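Action item from last week, closing it out:
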Amino acid sequence: MSELGTILRERREHMGLTQTEAADLAGISNSFLCQLESGTRAGRSVTTVAKLASALGLRLDALVGASVRGARPDGE
């Protein structure tokens, strides 16, 4: 699991939200949130990361940093 995925999952669970509820709050698909949490997809879009930060009450800089640190060297 990626650092971003861990942060998202822990915060979502702390808030008592399902993946579907959190995805709805952020305006993204449940499958995309699942991929982010599992680390199979990087959160490369600052817009998407900002939506997640807002929905989960997190600081944007914490998620952007986690997203950048978790990005693969080939850009995927």
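Closing note: The chain has a mean pLDDT of 84.
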